[in-house]
Structures are given as C-alpha cells and as structure tokens.
Amino acid sequence: MFVPALFISILLRAFSAQAKVVTSFDECKGFFFKDTEPEGMDQNAKKICQMLESDSYSYATLYSVHHRIPLYSAYVFDPDCSSTAGRAENWHVEPQISQPESQTDHMIYERDSDENMIKRYQAVSSDYTNSGYDRGLLNPNSFHCEESRNATFTLTNVAPMDAGFDRLNWKNWESALGSFLRSKLDTDGGSAAVYIVSGTVPGDHVQIPLRGTSEDPERVTVPSHFWTAVCYKHHINDTKSFSFGYVGENQLEGGIRLMTVSELDDQLRELLKTPQAVRIFVDDCFDDSNKINEIQGVFDQLINLPVNQGDQSATDEQSMSRTLKRVVRSSQNPYLTVDKYFCRLDHPCGRYGEDYYWCWTGYGIFDSWDYCSPPLSGTRGTNGQYCKSNYACGTYGSGYNWCYTSDGSEEMCCTSDDCYSAVNDQRCWDNHRCGYHGYSYLWCYTDANANWDYCCKNCIFTAPLKGAYMFNFSIHGRSNPSIPSTAAIVKNGGRVVVAHGYQDQYVVNSSNGVVLILEVGDVVYQQTDGGLSEKEISQQISKENRRQNPPQTDSLRDEASPDSQQYCHLSFSDIHTALRELTATVTEQKANIRALET
C-alpha cells in the first residue's frame, strides 16, 4: 500500500464542500503542485471544484463558457486504480455554470437536467452526436477509482477530440503514462505524489455541431491541440523528483511530442496567443532537460511509436491515420463505416458497383465489410430532422433512401436540403413546395397531374391563430452589382412584400422584417427572382469560398434568370407568433434595399 498516497486521499476528502463553481480554487487547491494553480490562462473562465453529490472533491477544472470546453483539469494520480477502466454512459453536467443562482452545488446527471437551460453556457451530449469528434476526457477515468472515476464523466471535463487522434494516438499516450507512473511509484515505494494538469488550446476555425447536421450548430469550439503536464514530487529525495509534458495536434494524423515543462509553457503561450507568460507548475516542478531523454526512451518502448514523428507508425490502424495526409473536416470519414469500423487501407468507402456505399474492413480469409455513409451533408428525413452525419441519406442496400435522423428515428429521406426535394431523388412540382398542406406529414405534388410524395423540409407557414406574425428574410448576392435581385413574401399566392438588392460579393445584403396580419389557415412563403438556381450556385462557388462563407442551409429555392449573373440566397429566420396589435410594418435596414408593401 502506498501510505503517502493514502494520506493525500484522506486530506482531499477533508476539504469542506461548499460551492461547486467557485471564485477561488482554495477549496480544492490540493490538486495543484504546491497548492498553486497554473498562471497565464483565461481570467474570465469559470473555476470548478469537481464533486459528486455527498462526496468530496475529485479534481479541479478551469472552464471556458465562451468555448464551452475546459481549458484544463488538474488532478492527483491514484496508483491503486485499475488501468483498464471502461467508459460510462451516465454523463453529468454542472448546473451552476448555466444557472449561477442554482443551489445545487455538485454535478448532476445530464438526463435529469433541463437541456435548454444547461446548454446556454456549456456543452451537452447532443453537441457531440455524429460530429466525428469524441468526448475527449482531460482527466482520464483510468487514473481514478470509484467515485472519483465517476466524477470524470462530466461534460465540463471533456472537449471535442478527433476520433482518430483520440483512439489511435492520445489513448496510447494516456495508457503509457499510466504504466510509467505506476512503475515509477512502485520503484520508489509509493513515496511520491503525482500532480497532473491536462488541457486544451481552443481552435479558431471549427465548432460543433457542424452546419447541416443540427438545428443548433457551431456551439462548441474544437481545440487545435491537447496537452498534458506531469509533476512527480518525491516526498524525501528531490533528486528523484522530475517533470515533463507533451502536446499533440487534434487531427487524425496529428503527432504528439514530449518536452520539458518549461518548453511546454513557452509553446502554450505561443499557441494561446497570450501576452502574459504561461506557467503550469511553480518553478516548473524540478524541470530537467537531462531527464527527458530517459523518459522519452521509456515512452518509446511503451507506445512502440517514434514520439516526435506524426507521420510514422507501428500498427495498421496508425498507418491508416498517417495515409490520410489531408483530411477535410466533414460529416463523413472516407475510411470509417456507419458502425465505426475502419476500412482497409486499399479499400476506402465507395459504391464498387452497388447502389450503396461500403468497404472491406477485414484482412485474411474471412473478409468482413460494412456500409458507409454517402458523402452528403445536410440531408433530412421525412420528419423534418437532419440525418445523422455518419448516416446520411442513402439506400444501405434497401432499394430506397433512408437514414437515422438526429432524434434517433429511422425515416425515409431527401438527398437535398431545399424546398423542392422529395423522397427517392424526386422533385416537387415548381408550383407546390414542400410543406404540411393541412396534413400531419410533409408532402408535395410532384407533377401537374396531382401525383404526390413525401418530402423533408417545411417551407410553408400556415397561421394557427388570427393575429400579427413577424417574418424576417435576407438577400445574399454575388457577381454583377448592376443587376438587382428580388425577394418577395407571398401570402395566399400573392406578393405582399418585395425587396430589391444590389450585390457585388457573397455576403448578407440586408435583413428585412415584416409583420403580416393573418387569418387562421393563411399560407405564407417566400419567392425570389433574378438569380441562379441552387445547382448553378453550387457549381460556381469554389469549395474554399463555401468553406469560408457557407450558404444558409435553410435557404429556399431560387428561380433561374438567363440574363442575370446575380443570384439571391434567402432564408427565413425563426417565425415569431406575436399576438399583439394588429398592425403591419415593413422595416428597411439599409439604404440600398427598397422594401415595398403592395
């Protein structure tokens, strides 16, 4: 038994349990080397002394409500715990992050919380669903026992980690670190304490959920890097004390590099773009570059991977990750199946003569295979929900298009996210866009002969009550600035509001609000003229431009005009049913937009 480690555990359990979200780490300072928190981090981030109900503090976290991810978690390594801990299905959230006045001073089960309240300032599990990112634990569950292990499964201790990086690189380093520390503590007779801080570098470009996969996209920042710093403090002989750190780029082919703590401090200052110095441990905790070579040699053996090279590997799976030299972040990975098996390196996802996407996943005599998601984004089911990003609309061997939608249901689906897309690659009739049209399901006529089929996006608003309703819409344009683009609000088949815009670049041109007086059953939708069709738009906008300026996923179809190089790209905002004064107004937002009520 490691007596000093047991003493630390008892000491931490003796802390008073007052508030979970705190103004100072004084209540849980024992998780930091010399009771001192890291310097140079975001001063506006929330400090959390992590604890379960009726339990002692388990670790400390600095949490960014702006990015909805932790900046770091600080904890003490427990050598008596199993290194083969499993994952938990019971995730927790912190009520006081989103509701400071809450009297609940401990984490609670996410399933027992009010998601709409919680998601105001922190991530929820649905943000990660089918995003291509794992809930990457900063404080690993495998470094703790019992209640402290359960306490690691909170959304305030995780950040979006690339699935390949997590499973092929980071988890190997995490396992190697645990093995190294257990061996070292055993050699020293348990006469040491290990303080660890694991953190993130918030990225600048990617947030989840990705656009086209959720009704509430881009809430959680994806870190550009993950890092860990280790302080091994011997209780008796400081010559046996040491420290080190490592940092890895959060992408499929990202490498991980071992370094001294002082080097990690400098690199974090550069990555975080902060003017003040970053210092993780007081006095860098016995920082010694001469000991790094010894530690690196041990990690080389434990991981069986050159630690300074992100483009070399020792296993087939790691070879696969290095083969994908450039991965464009999208809803599908060309080497990952719907059941999250890796395709063979020589057989990525494709049709291969079938009407569905698939790949070989096994080697040898008994080859196995699995379905892949089609390379589509923003597809919808007939319930109006987006298809899961790893289960985009496709046949999957069934002979008709279907998908699992974001709410988990199996639905027929549409391969395009517009108002004229029907199931099985059909198109709605030009004069009859997708909507409920008085029924409980989405449908449209597919021709002038009253043939119909199911569709996937409600583009018709039908007034449920008599009153005043606010509608918002905007014009997007590009190309010839001398040719106007026209947007119209249509009520019961007749135009009631017209807006003209002149554009010379692909940006939002204007935002116009209009209040309409509607009777029960009145139908409202929007109409555009003077623009290119959505197909022509997609052909003309380069992939890079679409990445920088993604078109609105809820835009309605534009009518083509052969003599115009301008296009409109319009969208309705949320429809507000304001049962107030029965007045109609038109608001003109910019001088180059004329909003006329006819």
Describe the structure.
Residues 56-270 form the ENPP1-3/EXOG-like endonuclease/phosphodiesterase domain. Residues 538-547 have a biased composition (Basic and acidic residues). Residues 538-563 are annotated as: Disordered. Residues 1-19 form the signal peptide. InterPro entries: C1q_dom, DNA/RNA_non-sp_Endonuclease_sf, Endo_G_ENPP1-like_dom, ENDOD1, ENPP1-3/EXOG-like_nuc-like, His-Me_finger_sf, Tumour_necrosis_fac-like_dom. The protein is of the alpha+beta class. It folds into 4 domains: 3-303, 3-Layer(aba) Sandwich (Extracellular Endonuclease, Chain A), CATH 3.40.570.10; 330-375, no CATH class; 377-459, no CATH class; 461-597, Jelly Rolls (Sandwich). It is 17% helix and 27% strand. The protein has 11 helices and 28 strands. The chain has helices at residues 3-13, 95-98, 115-118, 125-128, 146-151, 163-187, 261-272, 289-303, 316-323, 534-540, 543-548, and strands spanning 21-22, 46-51, 57-64, 69-76, 92-93, 108-109, 133-137, 158-162, 192-208, 220-234, 242-249, 256-259, 358-360, 369-371, 380-381, 402-404, 410-414, 443-445, 452-454, 461-462, 467-477, 485-491, 494-501, 507-518, 523-529, 571-572, 586-587, 594-597. The strands form 8 sheets. Strands 1-2-3-4-9-10-11-12 form an 8-stranded antiparallel sheet, with helices on both faces. Strand 11 (242-249) and strand 12 form a beta hairpin. It is elongated and about 90 Å long. The N and C termini lie far apart (85 Å).
